[in-house]
């Protein structure tokens, strides 16, 4: 005996004893060791073990995956893997022929192959499970128990499994062959009918059996003919459950299952029909036709009747089987696409009936054995014939191997003329043909041959055939009837009249459309055709063979029948197979294939593949043949060599990478070393020399200083002494002189008096008295004359005043800011029905501004107007009044236009003053109510009573001219000088007073004007002087005078305007024409005692418009004039303009502190509450509004929680839109709850503190709403999307906004390094702009000209770390002032500085730091900045010390600067410039790049333009169609060549694009979502359409002048770039298209999204509604609200990780959920998942309600998904936010099993969580018991007992907070085995022992099945036992244990996706940790 025969070998080719005995012994030895698989080269021999071996686990699947044949021990998985590997490697279809006798294990091998292919596909898809679950259905209908096999296949099947390019299963198709229908009516002894009957009777519920009148199997004839109704190896009840599960998986409906059961029951009942006499009684069947046929004994015999019934039953069962197979194929087969380029790869598995030789063999056995002959011939042909013929052709030295060729048998059976099957068909077609005539013909034709064995005599009906497995004798009785396989006409008509639809579907082929019967071909003909098709399929594939061997006939394990096995080996030709495999070369390659695959094994030095390839003749096909063993060895060596080459490449590349990195680092190190050494050397040299110099110079300076100091002290002493003495002497002399003169004067007076008294006589005294009386008389006379003169003057002045009153008589009496209704949004500040009474203010006593010093009139005497006229007037112009037109202006003007304008102004002034007559009235107009000419300014005044003063002259046009203000003032003064007409005189002074309030004269004329004003009429001189001073002080006005100013001109008093505060107070203030917002704000702040005045501004409002006047130099009357003009523009009366002034907070300082000023805080607080109510300030979350309302509740009413107060608060705080979204009761409940739970109630916090919290919240939440805005234009600086924008300055920084409030740039204050302003001049049309002259019909209003004839503006320069911006702004000075103030204030208060240089000090007193490091400043009294030192702390080292102030830069920030700011600060200016230059080369303005189009791309990839004959005829010279340019007509053909012919599809894409962009008119309005679905939906499924969409969008954006259309196109392109990228050929053109349009706001985002889409997988669905809404709002950041389990909300972008929203210790095991509750996969796109869910919801609801599309709401939750290693208390934040809110509902739903003690304890904990320590709520326990106790345990005790026990447990838990109670709850629950489980209520049909509804729990222990009522664990399956899983729409399937005989779990639930996601993640984590 050869050594190889002792223990056996894996491959029988390696046997030493190459004979039958050695072959048999090898199988015997391996069979005893439990090794059932053996190789014969690539052929697998499988011996049926008749027991379950541990060979088919998932570990075995993984072991044999991607391994070569022979690398591991023989296994059926190895054959399956070879099929899969060769299919993908050779791109050729594979097949596996599994042959053997009945009972050899062919069906099990087929199932194992399927299981492996499904597992190696690795998709866990539903189609894989459907293919696997087809076997239980096919076995139920097509398998039965026979003598040799308990699960014998009574039909053949070929399963063709289809794969994608990636190797994933995408479908399958099942072909069936020759079902043994006769078994339905007849069975041999000890055999059963088909399994389905027994399974149905054993497993069907009793209710259904009762409906179908079914009983046990022993009651039916069709099931008891073989005297066997049970099978020891099968559990019919369990098999029926599996059958039902498989039916559901394969989409059989409940109606289908019920109809099948009815047909099967009908057949069983028909089988029990019996006959008596001449009548028969038939049970009513499911055909619903009760038919009684009267039969004549002479016509039809009983036997014939029985035969007809049997044939009918067989036909029904056969057609039902065909229908079931068709239904399965419909579920699992996916038709190939129409694309001719699509190549489908497949693997075919052939499981056909084995060779049969019974005691009695019939027609079925003949067909079965004929099929086996065909397969044997296929095997012989491939293994022997073709191989040896190949050796002969190649002239290989070869000893021919003899083999058993069954070709002669096939010739007799089917190939030769008049073969046996042909004779049977021929005789079947004869109506009178019988079995006897058939056998006679066979004897006659084939009787003399050695293949056909004729009957022994003429009466014998048996004949024999010499098969390859031996002689088989067939009984010819019934051959023709079975071959005809036809039904009678009556039966077909009976089926046709049936009401059973399934029966008609089954017999559809037999029924014609007109009711005629179709003639069916013979059974043998059909079988031969199907076999021929099968042979063609197998021939086209690369075959593999599995030879199944049956070890014994008793179906017992470990029993090996030598004779039986030898017979099977012998007729299968195994001996010859071994010989040819051992000596032959079964593996063949062409030379090119072999060289291409194995050239890696060649040594190029010995054999160069390129040279060898050239040396081979082109016309000679070289074939390389290899032995199986050598092929395996070559493959292993190839893999080994490839791995080595890969390692070599990796090693070389890594070496190159690290060498290059090392060289770069070494070079850098050398540069650093060189520079450092040089620096150190220079530093040491300079330091030593500098120290020496310093010492010498210090000594010299010290010496000189000491000398100078001594001299200075001496000089000071002498000088001070001298000066002191001199001063003392001067004072002494002065005192002496003063005393002398005083004493002398007093003495002289005394002496004079004494002399007068002594010498004065009486007469003299009398004369003196008379002289005194005369002087008194004369004085009285003078006084009387003076009084008379004053009385006369007073009379004249009254007359003048009356004239003025008459002039201004049309003016209404009004207070500014009180006319009309309040503007929108401010009506609440005024009481309804009555006007708010302003606070009384004494306008005369209240100063408007600081006192302005009056002019020195003594200095004005020399500035007379006559003097100015003599000096500057032209020609003979006089300074006195005239009534003629001037020939030239008074002053010289260079510009001719100014000359004309000056003459026009003179004409207007003359008309205003009445010195020129008015134009005649138009005919038809009357002068009703006209006054006299002396008292009237205009004869048409009566018709103009409702117009302003500026309309009184009658000119109806407004003109703008450029005139010097000196010219205007000179003209007015000239007309006032020596004007004898009192009317004209007063009109002139009125005009002069109005002009003085609008603009001042130049410096050249101002002194002369002041001198002229002094001599004005009474009242006008001081009034005009004051207006002139105010105008000079506050600057020029920009608008014409308002009605209020005309009233002030009349009364010559300040204007009274009302200003409303946000607390509803209204204050009346005095203003004049020159009053500024700064003055008004100062008055208001003093009035209300406001200390923190910064940021409070004056606002003006009219209608819906509100704008800020700031608190600077803006003129208030200009704003009021604008309001009046707005009213006039809308057709209203200007004098009744409903404008209002408001005092509001506009901007905060970065260091704002609410505690500094309670008045300020209160005003801001009131403003915020109003803003909430009217929608000015909006919150992202409702909870924020509720909290603010609760705080307002507390501020207003304290702890009073009454309902009326709550209603008032809701009305004060909640916007009307929010009240519409939620009911008022809901808001009342939320606000009241928040107020009751607010911390300020228990802490009794002061209302001022709560107000401060609200103000701080608003400051942090809405910085942009508290900003100061300035319009600006960029002159130079880094590139921005737009050059004109709005600059918003607030406490956070500086923001550039476009007109749609999109952020263009945001700068924090640390990024701003400086700000300054500069003046500029502008010249328009070549002439200098001197000023603007507005002629509002009669009143001349001038905008001030600037000095020297030029108009100067200002620009502001912002110096930032991101580049320097030069901005042109009207209020550039305000910008610079505000930014400078913020920067200075921040630096004063900042605690952060950055080092400007490196300082190294050994002395610990000084701080050492490096350049660019952050220094934290410590402000104390130890060091002061004034001395040049400050105390600081190095953030890097943590050390503290003194820092020189010149070595650091204090950063303007109150918080720690970001890393971005620090990195920018550490860069040098050149580096920052280089970084900016990398993005944009800035040369004053943004450099424009010519837009790129698809013109270049179209030359190569676009189709040719369509030639339109009609268009060419109409326009002969028209240019050819440019396909890359926008068109308003839909294109008829695709743009790309590769899509030619798809015109309908392209039109469906083009029209929606045009509609979305607004370029195509449409009658039916479509939503943007519908259009984007039409545009992007097909492209997400078909990759070929993506380039077409890109091209069409960019085409429509090229040369598009419609801005709206272009913006819509950018939106489409933005969406497209985020969905999928273009192809490589289009990619560079798309990038260039976007890069050339960087100025567009969306272009950078499109580029960024395009780059991102290149790195990741394309999206699977069109855009979601949220994406479309965002981009339509021009927002590229998409935010979505995410909810947490504890009812908190966050608004974040889905692109960000939601794990960082909360400070969790562990961020793993969390995921997003969408309600309707579905778990989102981590790998899925967020919006794809949302789109899939919303689409499904819409479809389901629309189908349910029968409506159209609708919007579906959903919620996104962030929750814990995995509960591995969760320990309560380790992460308190996660416990409170996630663990407690997620575990509580599980507990209350009754998912856990717990004791009463635990429930009572937990109930007390839950009560404490809700109410904390509030024991007064005990009375609520009965009402809220469902929130404390599991729902299924509520009746375990009475309500009173529950309350009593919970209260007792609560009292034991004293001094415990609500958070501690939540944690205690988790600690109790975590002890239970079901803690952290994910529970699913499912319906199962797999195990009849389990209830229909079970609860599945997934935890770290595995998958548990729990009884929902008893909560008993019915089964637990650890993760390592789960072999496979998959899911469908509403089903999921799990295989536990062995792949073949393992437990199968099929469950139905709507949460399939969530279940599979959790299961997959748990399995992944389990595998990872294991």
UniProtKB/TrEMBL annotation:
InterPro entries tied to this protein = Band_41_domain, FERM/acyl-CoA-bd_prot_sf, FERM_2, FERM_central, FERM_domain, IQ_motif_EF-hand-BS, Kinesin_motor_dom_sf, Myosin_head_motor_dom-like
Q: Which CDD domains does this one have?
A: FERM1_F1_Myosin-VII, FERM_B-lobe, FERM_C1_MyoVII, FERM_C2_MyoVII, IQCD, MYSc_Myo7
State where the protein is found. Cytoplasm
Instruction: Name all PID domain ranges.
Output: 1894-1923
- Positions of the region Actin-binding? 531-553
What range(s) does the MyTH4 domain occupy?
881-1050, 1526-1672
State which residue ranges cross the membrane: 1951-1969
In terms of domain of life, where is this protein from?
Eukaryota
Q: Where does ATP bind?
A: 100-107
Q: Which residues form a coiled coil?
A: 756-786
Task: Write the protein's name.
Answer: Unconventional myosin-VIIa-like
Give the organism the record lists. Oncorhynchus kisutch
Gene symbol here is: LOC109881586
């Amino acid at each position: 005996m050869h050594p190889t025969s002792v223990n056996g070998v894996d491959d029988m080719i390696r046997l030493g004893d190459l004979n039958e005995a050695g072959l048999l012994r090898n199988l015997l030895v391996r069979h005893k060791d439990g090794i059932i698989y053996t190789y014969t080269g690539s052929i697998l021999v499988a011996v049926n073990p008749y027991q379950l071996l541990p060979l088919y686990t998932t570990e075995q699947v993984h072991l044999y995956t991607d391994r070569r044949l022979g690398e591991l021990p023989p296994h059926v998985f190895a054959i399956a893997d070879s099929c899969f590997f060769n299919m993908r490697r050779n791109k050729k279809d594979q097949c596996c022929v599994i042959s053997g006798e009945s009972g050899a294990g062919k069906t099990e091998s087929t199932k194992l192959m399927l299981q492996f292919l499904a597992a190696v596909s690795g998709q866990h898809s539903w189609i894989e499970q459907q293919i696997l679950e087809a076997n239980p259905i096919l076995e139920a209908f097509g398998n039965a128990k026979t003598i040799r096999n308990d699960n014998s296949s009574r039909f053949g099947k070929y399963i063709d499994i289809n794969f994608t390019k990636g190797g994933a299963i995408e479908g399958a198709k099942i072909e069936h062959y020759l079902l043994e229908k006769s078994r339905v009516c007849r069975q041999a002894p000890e055999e059963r009918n088909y399994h389905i009957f027994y399974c149905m009777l054993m497993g069907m519920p009793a209710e259904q059996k009762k409906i179908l009148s079914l009983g046990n199997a022993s009651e039916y004839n069709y099931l008891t003919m073989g005297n066997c109704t049970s099978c020891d190896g099968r559990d019919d009840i369990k098999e029926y459950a599996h059958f039902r599960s498989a039916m559901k998986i394969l989409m059989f409906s409940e109606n289908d299952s019920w109809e099948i059961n009815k047909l099967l029951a009908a057949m069983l009942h028909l089988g029990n029909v019996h006959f008596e006499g001449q009548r028969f009684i038939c049970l009513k069947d499911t055909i619903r036709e009760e038919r009684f046929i009267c039969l004549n004994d002479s016509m039809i015999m009983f036997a014939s009747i029985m035969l007809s019934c049997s044939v009918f039953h067989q036909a029904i069962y056969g057609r039902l089987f065909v229908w079931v197979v068709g239904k399965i194929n419909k579920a699992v087969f996916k038709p190939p696409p129409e694309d001719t380029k699509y190549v489908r790869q497949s693997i075919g598995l052939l499981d056909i009936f084995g060779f049969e030789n019974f005691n009695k063999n019939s027609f079925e056995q003949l067909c079965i054995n004929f099929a086996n002959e065909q397969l044997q011939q296929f095997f012989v042909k491939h293994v022997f014939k073709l191989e040896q013929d190949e050796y002969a052709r190649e002239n290989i030295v070869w000893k021919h191997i003899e083999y058993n060729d069954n070709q002669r048998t096939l010739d007799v059976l089917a190939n030769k003329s008049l073969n046996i099957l042909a004779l049977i068909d021929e005789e079947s077609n004869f109506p009178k043909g019988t079995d006897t005539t058939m056998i006679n013909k066979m004897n006659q034709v084939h009787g003399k041959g050695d293949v056909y064995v004729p009957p022994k005599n003429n009466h014998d009906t048996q004949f024999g055939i010499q098969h390859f497995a031996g002689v088989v004798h067939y009984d010819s009785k019934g051959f023709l009837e079975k071959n005809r396989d036809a039904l009678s006409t009556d039966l077909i008509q009976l089926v046709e009249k049936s009401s059973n639809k399934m029966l008609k579907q089954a017999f559809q082929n037999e029924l014609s459309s007109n009711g005629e019967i179709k003639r069916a071909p013979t059974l043998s003909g059909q079988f031969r055709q199907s076999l021929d098709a099968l042979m063609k399929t197998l021939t086209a594939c690369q075959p593999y063979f599995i030879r199944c061997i049956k070890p014994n006939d008793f179906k017992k394990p470990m029993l090996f029948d030598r004779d039986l096995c030898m017979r099977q080996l012998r007729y299968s030709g195994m001996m010859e197979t071994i010989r040819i495999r051992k000596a032959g070369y079964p593996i063949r390659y062409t030379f090119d294939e072999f060289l291409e695959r194995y050239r890696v094994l060649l040594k190029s030095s010995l054999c160069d593949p390129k040279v060898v390839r050239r040396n081979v003749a082109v016309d000679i096909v070289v074939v390389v043949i290899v032995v199986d063993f050598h092929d395996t060895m070559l493959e292993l060596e190839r893999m080994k060599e490839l791995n080595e080459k890969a390692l070599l490449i990796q090693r070389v590349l890594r070496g190159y990478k690290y060498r290059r990195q090392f060289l770069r680092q070494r070079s850098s190190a050398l540069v650093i070393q060189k520079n450092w050494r040089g620096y150190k050397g220079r530093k040491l040299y300079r330091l030593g020399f500098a120290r020496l110099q310093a010492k010498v110079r210090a000594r010299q300076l010290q010496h000189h200083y000491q000398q100078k100091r001594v001299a200075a002290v001496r000089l000071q002493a002498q000088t001070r002494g001298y000066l002191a003495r001199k001063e003392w002497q001067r004072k002494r002399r002065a005192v002496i002189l003063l005393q002398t003169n005083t004493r002398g004067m007093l003495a002289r007076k005394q002496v004079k008096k004494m002399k007068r008294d002594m010498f004065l006589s009486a007469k003299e005294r009398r004369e003196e008295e008379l002289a005194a009386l005369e002087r008194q008389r004369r004085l009285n006379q003078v006084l009387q004359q003076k009084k008379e003169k004053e009385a006369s003057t007073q009379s004249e002045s009254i007359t003048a005043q009356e004239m003025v009153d008459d002039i201004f008589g049309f003016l209404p009496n009004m207070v500014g800011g009180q006319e009309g209704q309040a503007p929108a949004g401010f009506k609440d500040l005024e009481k309804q029905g009555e006007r708010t009474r302003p606070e009384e203010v004494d306008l005369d006593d209240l100063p408007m501004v600081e006192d302005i010093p009056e002019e020195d009139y003594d200095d004005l005497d020399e500035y007379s107007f006559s003097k100015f006229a003599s000096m500057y007037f032209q020609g003979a112009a006089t300074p006195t009044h005239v009534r003629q037109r001037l020939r030239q202006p008074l002053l010289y003007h260079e510009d001719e236009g100014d000359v004309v304008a000056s003459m026009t102004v003179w004409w207007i002034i003359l008309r205003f003053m009445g010195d020129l007559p008015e134009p005649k009235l138009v005919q038809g107009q009357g002068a009703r109510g006209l006054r006299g000419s002396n008292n009237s300014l205009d004869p048409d005044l009566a018709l103009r009573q409702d117009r302003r003063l500026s309309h009184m002259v009658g000119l109806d046009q407004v003109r703008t001219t450029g005139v010097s203000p000196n010219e205007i003032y000179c003209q007015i003064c000239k007309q006032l000088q020596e004007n004898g007409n009192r009317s004209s005189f007063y009109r002139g002074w009125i005009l002069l007073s109005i002009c003085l309030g609008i603009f001042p004269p130049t410096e050249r004329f101002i002194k002369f004007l002041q001198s002229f004003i002094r001599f004005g009429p009474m009242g006008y001189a001081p009034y005009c002087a004051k207006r002139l001073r105010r105008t000079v002080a506050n600057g020029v006005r920009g608008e014409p005078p308002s009605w209020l100013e005309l009233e002030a001109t009349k009364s010559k008093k300040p204007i009274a305007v009302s200003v409303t505060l946000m607390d509803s107070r209204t204050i009346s203030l005095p203003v004049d024409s020159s009053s500024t917002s700064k003055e008004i704000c100062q008055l208001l702040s003093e009035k209300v005692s406001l200390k923190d005045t910064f940021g409070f501004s004056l606002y003006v409002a009219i209608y819906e418009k509100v704008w800020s006047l700031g608190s600077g130099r803006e003129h208030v009357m200009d704003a009021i004039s604008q309001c009046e003009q707005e009213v006039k523009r809308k057709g209203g009366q200007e004098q009744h303009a409903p404008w209002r002034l408001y005092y509001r907070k506009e901007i905060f300082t970065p260091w704002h502190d609410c505690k500094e000023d309670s008045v300020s805080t209160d005003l801001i607080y009131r403003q915020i509450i109003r803003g909430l109510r009217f929608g000015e300030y909006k919150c992202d979350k409702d909870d924020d509004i509720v909290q603010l309302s609760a705080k307002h509740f507390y501020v207003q009413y304290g702890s009073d929680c009454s309902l009326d107060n709550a209603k008032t608060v809701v009305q004060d705080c909640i916007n009307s839109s929010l009240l519409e979204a939620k009911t008022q009761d809901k808001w009342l409940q939320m606000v009241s709850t928040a107020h009751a739970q607010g911390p300020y109630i228990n802490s009794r916090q002061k209302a001022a503190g709560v107000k401060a919290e609200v103000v701080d919240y608003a400051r942090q939440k809405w910085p942009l709403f508290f900003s100061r805005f300035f319009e600006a234009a960029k002159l130079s600086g880094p590139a921005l999307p737009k050059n004109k924008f709005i600059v918003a300055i607030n406490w956070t920084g500086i923001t550039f906004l476009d007109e749609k409030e999109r952020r263009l740039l945001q700068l924090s204050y640390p990024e701003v390094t400086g700000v300054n302003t500069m003046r500029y001049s502008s010249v328009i049309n070549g002439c200098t702009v001197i000023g603007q002259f507005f002629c509002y019909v009669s009143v001349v209003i001038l905008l001030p000209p600037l000095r020297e004839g030029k108009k100067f503006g200002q620009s502001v320069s912002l110096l930032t770390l991101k580049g320097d911006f030069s901005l042109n702004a009207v209020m550039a000075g305000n910008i610079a002032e505000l930014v400078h103030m913020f920067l200075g204030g921040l630096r004063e208060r900042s605690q952060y500085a950055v080092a400007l240089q490196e300082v190294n000090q050994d002395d610990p007193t000084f701080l050492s730091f490096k350049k660019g490091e952050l220094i934290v400043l410590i402000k104390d009294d130890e060091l002061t900045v004034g001395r040049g030192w400050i105390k600081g702390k190095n953030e890097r080292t943590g050390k503290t010390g003194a820092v020189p102030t010149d070595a650091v830069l204090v950063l303007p920030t109150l918080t720690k600067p970001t890393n971005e700011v620090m990195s920018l600060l550490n860069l040098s200016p050149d580096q920052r410039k280089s970084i900016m230059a990398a993005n944009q080369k800035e040369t004053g303005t943004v450099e424009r790049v010519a837009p790129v189009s698809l013109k270049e791309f179209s030359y190569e990839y676009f189709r040719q333009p369509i030639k339109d004959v009609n268009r060419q005829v109409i326009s002969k010279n028209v240019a050819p169609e440019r396909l890359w340019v926008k068109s308003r007509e839909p294109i008829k053909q695709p743009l790309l060549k590769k899509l030619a012919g798809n015109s309908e599809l392209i039109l469906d894409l083009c029209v929606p694009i045009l509609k979305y962009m607004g370029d195509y008119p449409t009658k039916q309005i479509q939503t943007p979502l519908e259009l984007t679905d039409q545009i992007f939906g097909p492209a997400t499924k078909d990759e070929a359409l993506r380039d077409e969409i890109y091209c069409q969008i960019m085409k429509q954006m090229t040369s598009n002048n419609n801005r709206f259309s272009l913006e819509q196109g950018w939106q489409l392109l933005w969406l497209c770039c985020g969905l999928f990228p273009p192809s490589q050929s289009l990619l560079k053109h798309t990038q260039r298209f976007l890069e050339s349009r960087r100025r567009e706001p969306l272009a950078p985002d499109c580029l960024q999204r395009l780059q991102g889409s290149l790195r990741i997988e394309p999206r699977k669905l069109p855009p979601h509604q949220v994406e479309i809404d965002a981009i339509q709002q021009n927002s590229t950041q998409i935010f979505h609200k995410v909810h947490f389990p504890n009812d908190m909300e966050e608004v974040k972008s889905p692109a960000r990780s939601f794990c960082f929203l909360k400070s969790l210790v562990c961020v793993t095991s969390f995921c997003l959920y969408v309600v309707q509750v579905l778990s989102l996969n981590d790998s899925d796109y967020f919006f794809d998942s949302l789109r899939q869910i919303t689409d499904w919801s819409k479809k389901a609801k629309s189908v349910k309600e029968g409506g159209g599309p609708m919007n579906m709401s959903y919620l996104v939750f962030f929750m814990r998904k995995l509960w591995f290693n969760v320990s309560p208390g380790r992460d308190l934040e996660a416990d409170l936010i996630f663990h407690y809110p997620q575990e509580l509902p599980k507990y209350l739903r009754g998912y856990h099993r717990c004791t009463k003690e635990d429930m009572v304890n937990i109930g007390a904990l839950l009560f404490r969580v809700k109410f904390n320590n509030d024991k007064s709520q005990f009375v609520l326990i009965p009402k809220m018991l469902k929130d404390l106790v599991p729902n299924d345990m509520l009746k375990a005790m009475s309500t009173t007992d529950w309350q009593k026990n919970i209260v007792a447990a609560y009292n034991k838990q004293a001094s415990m907070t609500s958070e501690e109670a939540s944690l205690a709850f988790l600690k109790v629950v975590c002890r239970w085995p079901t803690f952290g489980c994910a529970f699913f209520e499912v319906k199962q049909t797999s195990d009849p022992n389990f209830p229909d509804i079970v609860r599945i729990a997934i935890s770290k222990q595995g998958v548990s099945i729990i009884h929902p009522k008893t909560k008993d664990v019915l089964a637990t399956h650890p993760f390592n036992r789960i072999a496979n899983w998959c899911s469908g729409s509403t089903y999921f399937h799990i295989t536990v244990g062995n792949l073949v005989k393992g437990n199968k779990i099929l469950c139905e639930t709507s949460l399939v996706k969530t279940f599979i996601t959790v299961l997959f993640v748990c399995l992944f984590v389990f595998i990872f940790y294991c």
